[in-house]
Amino acid sequence: MRATCCAAVPSHINDADHWMFTKFVGLDVGTGLRTWTVLTTAMGVTGFALTAVLWQVVQVRVQGRSPMPVGRGQ
Questions:
Q1: Distances (CA, A) of 67 to 24, 48, 54, 58, 72
Q2: Which of 6, 18, 35, 37 could be a cystine partner for 47, CB 3.0 to 4.6 Å?
Q3: How far is CA 61 from the centre of its chain?
Q4: CB distance 6 to 21 below 8 Å
């Protein structure tokens, strides 16, 4: 799987991954395209949701810290 799976949500017939998947599983072109589009959409939505959750965790941890120590060097 390529690293840009989240960008692959709108699958296309020229997508090399689509052709490899279709040939490997033994599907016809129409069924393979429908199946691959559903799978890539699920990967994209899952990747977005995971990123959104991790972003909230990172924000909470960073907001609790001051970028510079207060009261030092004065």
A1: 52, 28, 21, 15, 13
A2: 6
A3: 23
A4: no
Residue 55, number of CB atoms within 10 A of its CB: 10
pTM: 0.61
DSSP state of 14: T
For 34, the token pair is: 């429908």
What 65-68 contacts at long range (C-beta under 8 Å, 24+ apart), as own/partner pairs, is: none
Decide: helix, strand or coil at residue 10.
coil
Residue 9 near residue 40, CB atoms below 8 Å: yes
Residues in the chain: 74
User: 9-54: per-residue pLDDT in tens?
Assistant: 556 677 788 888 889 999 998 898 888 888 888 988 999 999 999 9
